[in-house]
Amino acid sequence: MYEPYWRLQQAPFGSDCGSRCYFAAGSHEGALLKLRYLIERGEQCGLLVGDHGLGKTYLSRVLTDGLAAEKYAIAQVVYPRLTADALLGDIAARLGVDPGEEDSAAGRIAIRVEHRLRQMADEEKRVIVCVDEAHLLDAPHFQTLQLLLNLSEAAGCLVSLVLIGQPQLLTVIRRVGGLSARVSVRTTLHPFSPEETAAYVRHRLRLAGRDECPFSEETLSALHELSQGVPRQINHIADLALLIGFADELTALGPVEIEAAAAELACVSAD
Question: Where in the chain do CATH 3.40.50.300 domains reside?
Fold first, then answer.
């Protein structure tokens, strides 16, 4: 709606621009490097944690998008509240396991998973399994993931498990001795600094086709303060501020527009 007015080729703060929109903030770049190390070394398990809106799921997709399809098989698990058996079945399906006869028993699924892993080992493929919202998992789920790693060892296929979740995942995983012992990477995302917030906004605007930033330095400071440096909140507030500026026929955006956008979003959240 507002893109032509601001001389943009597309909405700059949407959530659908893929890994090309990646912004190398300090903690995000550090996390990505550690997870790449995990995969390149063939380590079995890593943790990616952070509060809501910091980009954990997005970062995992940046990670997997950068992997060669002929060398890696990717399973992205987004519904971890399945039963433990259903979780194994979901991973199996995402790895292309033939469902075979209609039998969802964990033992039979495990046999088919091991067979598939042997095929991948013969193809010299590695497997990456990313489990989102992993802090919601309980003991049976973790046992299933341990089983997957055991099957990979038996099949001679390298499987790297990336568990993604809220900070409490660090505490939860300590209670799972067998799996905790296999964790070689623990990395945490943090909010953007004021400088990173400003650079991020300019980065997204450039990708959308505009080199000149309509947000003044004072405006960017207000945006950081009201968003607390959380990328999702930065996107929401900046996007709405651009819409307000378009509606009011402004040529630049000030703290007033940022504050108005943040207040409106707070009202929507409260509703």
Answer: 26-188
